[in-house]
Design goal:
The complex is a heterodimer. Chain A is an alpha+beta fold. Chain A folds into two domains: 90 residues; 229 residues, BirA Bifunctional Protein, domain 2 (2-Layer Sandwich), CATH 3.30.930.10. Helices cover 42% and strands 19% of the residues of chain A. Chain A contains twelve helices and nine strands. Chain A is rod-shaped, with a radius of gyration of 43 Å. Chain A starts with a helix and ends with a helix. By secondary structure, chain B is an alpha+beta fold. Chain B folds into six domains: 65 residues, Phenylalanyl-tRNA Synthetase, Chain B, domain 1; 110 residues, Nucleic acid-binding proteins (OB fold (Dihydrolipoamide Acetyltransferase, E2P)), CATH 2.40.50.140; 201 residues, Phenylalanyl-tRNA Synthetase, Chain B, domain 3 (3-Layer(bba) Sandwich); 66 residues, Phenylalanyl-tRNA Synthetase, Chain B, domain 1, CATH 3.30.56; 204 residues, BirA Bifunctional Protein, domain 2, CATH 3.30.930; 88 residues, Ferrodoxin-fold anticodon-binding domain (Alpha-Beta Plaits), CATH 3.30.70. Chain B is elongated and about 130 Å long. Classes of the chains: A alpha+beta, B alpha+beta.
Amino acid sequence: MNNKLQELQKMALEKLAEAKNAAELNELKVQYLGKKGQLTQMARNISEIAAEERPKFGQAINQVKASIEESLNQHLKEMEEKMLAAQLKKESIDITLPGRNVDLGTVHPLTMVINEVKDIFLGMGYSVEEGPQIETEYYNFEALNLPKEHPARDMQDSFYVTDSTLLRSQTSPVQVRTMEKMVPQVPVKIICPGTVYRRDDDATHSPMFHQIEGLVIDKNIRMSDLKGTLLTFVRQMFGEDREIRLRPSYFPFTEPSAEVDISCFACGGKGCRLCKDTGWIEVLGSGMVHPRVLEMSGYDPEEVTGFAFGIGVERIAMLKYGIGDIRLFFENDLRFLSQF
Amino acid sequence: MIVSYKWLQRYVDIKVSPEELAKKVTMAGIEVEGIHYPAQDIHNVKVGQIKTIRPHENSDKLQICLMDMGDELLQVVTGAPNIAVGQKVPVALENATLPGDFRVEKTVLRGVESFGMLCSMAELAIDDSAEAKAGLWVLPEDAPLGADIVAYMDLDDAYLELGLTPNRSDCLSVLNFAKEVAAVLHIECNEPDLSYMEGPEKIEKLAKITVEDTDLCKRYTARLVKNIKIGPSPWWMQQCLRSAGMRPINNIVDIGNFVLLEMGVPLHTFDYDTLTGHEIIVRRGEKDEKIITLDNQERFCDEETLLICDAEKAVCVAGIMGGLNTEVEPTTTNILIEAARFDPVCIRHTSRRLGLRSEASLRFEKGIDLFTIDKASRRCAQLLVELGGGTAVEGVLDSYAGPAYENKVIMRKTLPNELLGTSYTEQEVKDVFDWLHFSYVEKEGCLEVEIPSFRQDITRPVDLVEEIARLQGYDKIPITLPIGATTEGKRTEKQIFFDDLRKLCVSCGLHEVVNYSFINPTEWDKLLLPSESAYRNTVKISNPLTEEQSIMRTTLLPGLLKNASYNQSRRITNLKLAEIGAVFLPSGKELPDEKMHLGVLAMGEEEQNWLTNKAAYDYFYLKGILEKIAKSFGIENWQVVVADDIPFLHPGKSAKIMINGQMIGFIGELHPNVLKNYGVVRTSCMEIDLEAAFMACNRKITCQPLPKYPAIHRDIALMADIAVPVATIEEVIRKAAGDSLVKIGLFDVYQGSQLPNGKRSLAYNLTFQAMDRTLKDSEVNEAFDRVVEQLQEELGVQLR
């Protein structure tokens, strides 16, 4: 009887190993372990065995059954794995096909520059002020120490709306409006980004362009503070190893006044086409607020001093992104915009 | 202003090169924008003498000269008409170079060999007048044979091009610039000697001046020099004039121009004998009064034109141009020299009105220094005596009766260091005033500094601080940061709103654009706007560059459409743009209202992708963006209502955007005729008043607890009249279902042959949920039944 059992086990395991698919395995399962299966049949025949042998025989049957089941499960698992692997293989895709469209727009390069400058100065404790684009002559000129018939008004040919109102030719009027609002409080620490207008139109001048004005008023503000502030700004904007150079200049609303050059970021100051072999690039105008401007806004120039600076946004963007023609900013060609 | 390096050296002994000088002067405040070397291209041109001249067999125009070059004889063929044996002329030898990238070669001209070229002044780029071009440059008789022309005629100059700021118009004078150079280089400036012999006649007996309109002429002076012999001016003076782009004429005219450039004071020279009554009257012109100016043009005056007149007629438009009637002629011998200050505003107006700008008017417009006038007049008289052989009459007629010059500025000694952050010693401060030749005295911790009259820009202590800073060098200013109260850098709610909105637009796939604020008035017709449309009420620019940029926009749409059309003509037909910018609305007050708007334009359709179908950029595309904006900024209470009265939009595919019953913008597809007018394909647009949108924002976030009890979902399919808006149906559903309905999802809309005409089917998924318990099926069923009932009752909508 035991021999027969071992025979059956051997046979079953061999057949299981030869099975080609899950169906065949299931058939074998029925054939051996099913209600009418061979092993079940043998178990029913237990009565033919001597009583004292029965427990042993029962144990042997169970062992064979377990071993067949184990083998069966093993083969089933292997079979499933194979099938899954085959399926996965069938499902593989060309991973080099492009992805689904997820649209992303772009920020205009002028906005990018304005945001960058704003962030730098916000970090230094400045707040952002704005003012109207159509201004009175008073705020655009007179309060900035540019009375009527001042020769420096020729520096800026402006668009007029009426005899006394114009499209502002600079963001400086915001300085005056802010000072009038703040006086006599100090410190005043603001930047004023905005759109400005002048009657010019060529490859380097646009009738509409953008400036960012900065103003600091406090007790004991010195020109060295202006220099330090601008150096901090320039290094954040153009790189840690930039240097700055101040050149005397003239603006009616500052005294002393300075043009600010930065060491060329293309050649590091050795001289190249970008800096016209000078090693320096002019980036902004600045100076100590003229006492007359402080007076007109209600501050006492004996008590407080200040500095101001003005940054040309288009110029910075042209330098930073290598843009050759100012008109590109306003044509809004998608091929241009999508580069930012 | 262009200044000759050689001319400067007449006053200052400059030991540095022109380049070095340019650098130093620039870093001290007067920018040298460029250096031009007039003779840099002239090489191997030498003095030669014409020995013989013989005709050319094969040409009427050419002649053959034998030139003595000192060490050799050369045959040169020339076409110049003004040659004569014995003349000395410049000869460009073989391999010589001339300005204009010109190289002289040995050539054969119609069969005759030529070993060089005889040169005119024009060919050497010294003078480009017609006379200079007409013939050879005949050199002085004592010119040494074989001498290099550049060295011999002193041509190797350097012209510095100054970019003068308005405060330094004093440097429109070569002498004043020389003083600046002296201050920068810490050297002396030698001013010209102005003394000359006078007499015996006295000017008071020979001439008379009367200034009637003293408001326009603060000072008028006249000197008289008699018996002048007209002739050419000396070579050095001619070269000085040429450096400034002026052409030498004769000694009288040249001296006038030389003094103009040297002193910065324009002079006028009258032929004394043509002045009726030997009298000068300075007065305003009368309306339509006529004068024929030097250029033979008849000019009309107005009451704001200042005239110089003699006893019977106008002889000069003051500061602008002389009259033909008193012009200096070759026969002139007696000269009345005018030196004056005319009102800058008056000169500016007249110069603009007549369209005449000159070196003289330029300087009058900046304001002539009252106290240099006499010096300039003296200098002119002195040169007329010295170079014109004239006799100066004793004295001067001077209308000025004002106070003597005085300008003292008192500066606290501590001010420079306080304002600059420097630590200059008192001596370093004083050094600057010494370099500038500003005299000073000490007064109780202050310096009282006397400012020379030509530095009209210095009126306050800070102006002196700038002199110290720039002459000690801005590079000496240390680097510090402001010390003082800490300030917080922050943006206002509104600034944050704009920044976030811009980011949101980008995340919606929109490309930000920036357009001009001024637009073309013809846009309104292209947008089909009727004449009474509010958009046409604009702020107008009184002096636009072009008509196309003459009015301020009242909507962002024209700019966006211009971008669409620009891109389409470059074969970019799918485009999504956003602009955040101001519009300008007349307000009746001094300044117009400026409002920030958001404009969005979407043209064409989504780029086709191998995975997805093209989706058109239609009304619903933009509405999706609008919904996203509203959600992102917590704007509730908004809705769209049908807009069939916006002329530029498709009447069936457009809406007004409303908040609390107020219109804040529009959204829709553009009218086909507008598309045609701009030449673009299907385009949708949206514009929103951001001030109103900002007011409606609610960005306060209160986090809700997550539901603990399960939701129950029910689908419902409805058949409704097409005319019943979805918003109305949803309102009824919401009301009928009550609070337990938490979400309505529209997942299908169908209209077509399966349905009766005029009907459409809508399929919704309704989600019911309560926060405090599990809803019973029976509750949901009741709610669902109410919905079905109310839809039928209120809107005639049926279950399908």
